[in-house]
Amino acid sequence: MAGPTFQALPGFRDFTPRECAVRNYLFETWRDVARRCGYVEYETPILEDTGLYLKKSGGELSSQLFRFEDQGGRDVTLRPEVTASLARIVAQHQRDFPKPLKWFEIGQCFRYEKPQKGRGREFHQFNVDILGEAGPAADAELVALAIETMLAFGFVAGDFVVRISDRKAWIDFAEANGIAENSIPDFLGIIDKIEREKPEVLEQKLAAFSLTPEGVRAFIADPANASAAYLAIREDLTARGFADFVELDLSIVRGLAYYTGVVFEVFDAKKSMRAVAGGGRYDTLISTISDGATDMPATGFAMGDYVIRNLIEETTHTAMQLEVWLQRNAAACDIFVVVADEKMRAQSLRLVTDLRRAGISADLPLGLPKVAKQFQSAEKSGARFALVVGAEYPELKLKILASRTEESGNAATAIDWLTDRLLQPDGPLLA
After folding, report:
1. CA 311 – CA 307 distance, rounded (Å)
2. What is the pLDDT of residues 194-243, one digit of tens each?
3. Which of 139, 146, 141 is CA-nearest to residue 162?
4. Which candidate, 155, 312, 136, 319, places its Cα nearest to that of 237?
5. Which residues of 287-311 are buried (b: 16+ CB within 10 A; e: fewer)?
6. Residue 49 neighbours by CB distance under 10 Å
């Protein structure tokens, strides 16, 4: 009787070499943009005390935790997001760093929710935060970094939009309409889903607050309800040349309860998928996590790998940029050494070793395949060049695999020759 066939759990992924390469493209782009904008990298554990998330996360997130008791009897959770962990580490270590803190992390998170397009039970996030600065300049800086990130992936004006709102405008609205303070979180939860809710359900939920969908949408549509913080952010981004990428959208409130002010989300222009990124100001979270020991304003955003990858692959020019990157960075090696004469095996091994020590990725066949088979292996590896070592050694032949052209060189100068050659284009591709 055959044993069980094991597969990845629902909502979890295997990363084959190509999948790893695509993930590396995302990570390297995220890391490059963050460093260019003056942020430093940090890391927090994947496993945390469950109480960290229950303290102030909102009801929806609490129901999605991968939560269990460890062998020490501790109630622990695989992190569903990074902001709470950041609040913990900042409360503990903030005295050691000048303010404001501009930190970023690229890490894995877990949420027990229904897998679907743009959402899995495990995912990677790019988290960027500014802590210790209360003014709207920090929010504008983060929005600018989100825009820079989209541009780095190859998106252009018209491909995406950053929708900005301010929860304080809704707090004022709630107070003006007699909504009790302890009911405001429930009210904001309705606003957060206003575009996705069925009309009859929305009407029923708002009726509990003596409101109508028409009245709420009128508030959303009126630009006079923009907060002073939004206007300052708009002015800042206009000065940077980013005005065309942002718009006011008061329907954006973000679901998590710890947001306190300006919030924003990045959408594809057609809004054909979930938000690409989102975040906002959370000025009270660090104080809450530390029981008042540390009080520090903060704002941040996160971008997950699922949606940004979907959008990249479904947009022609960004998909092409990804493929070009993969051709140069995902190959098993740059140079595949073809041993055309087995008597030259020792020389081939030494040549591969010298190439590798010079920082050039190189490989060669481990067995004794025929030359034609070796060339097939070279092409399958994604190598740019096949370096042929034959009976004429120390003379070498370099086959440019993309153009099917050939060059010659000598083993004595191979390192300098090939180092220089790798910096040059490969010539025209064959039709």
Report:
1. 6
2. 888 899 999 999 999 999 999 999 999 999 999 999 999 999 999 999 99
3. 146
4. 136
5. bbbbeeebebbbbbbbbbbbbbbbb
6. 15
